[in-house]
Specification:
Layout lengths: L1 H20 L10 H15 L27 H19 L12 H14 L11 H24 L4 H21 L5
Helix pairs in contact: 2-4, 2-6, 3-4, 3-5, 5-6
């Protein structure tokens, strides 16, 4: 009886070792949950848009065409643009002159950085053409340059940062609502 118990135990252990020895390949892609958390943190960071900043509000139109998908291979292009968006957000928020009144700022920055680090593999995905990527990327960088110019023109004032926060919120919301590539 003891021999049968030992055999049963060894069989279970061998199965366990075999199952755990199979390498698990992580899926390459941006996670909807993390993107949603980024949006929520940024939204709660400063509350509603301050009334005293209404005169400073500038709406910059997101180049939604950079995220368009018309065929399955274009999903890779749109996903790359979402990834590039995170990198541009990271660069924008690396500025030292952000409002000290914003709560959760470090959590937001860490979450953006985490998504960038965990999703580097996206850039190795193939898409329809290199020109397509360059056109999309140019449109996206132009959009972020306009956002950065708001900070320069307004000397990184609290109102300028609030405008930037609203633009980034709108961008993250667009990605969340229009993407079928988020995991």
């Amino acid at each position: 009886m003891a021999l049968q118990s030992i055999r049963a135990w060894l069989t279970v252990m061998l199965c366990f070792v075999h199952i755990n020895a199979v390498p698990i390949t992580p899926t390459c892609g941006l996670q909807r949950r993390l993107m949603d958390q980024s949006h929520s943190l940024l939204e709660s960071m400063g509350g509603r848009f301050p009334v005293e900043c209404l005169d400073h509000y500038v709406k910059i139109t997101l180049p939604s065409s950079a995220f368009n998908t018309s065929e399955a291979t274009d999903n890779a292009g749109a996903e790359k643009m979402a990834y590039e968006t995170l990198k541009l957000i990271d660069t924008l928020f690396a500025n030292d002159s952000m409002p000290t009144s914003w709560n959760n700022l470090e959590d937001f920055q860490s979450l953006i950085y985490r998504q960038i680090e965990e999703s580097r593999c996206i850039m190795s995905k193939t898409q329809s053409s290199l020109n397509d990527f360059q056109d999309r990327n140019t449109a996206l960088k132009t959009f972020f340059d306009k956002i950065a110019n708001i900070l320069k023109e307004k000397e990184s004032s609290i109102c300028a940062w609030e405008v930037v926060r609203q633009q980034i919120l709108s961008t993250l919301r667009f990605i969340l609502q229009s993407s079928d590539y988020l995991l």
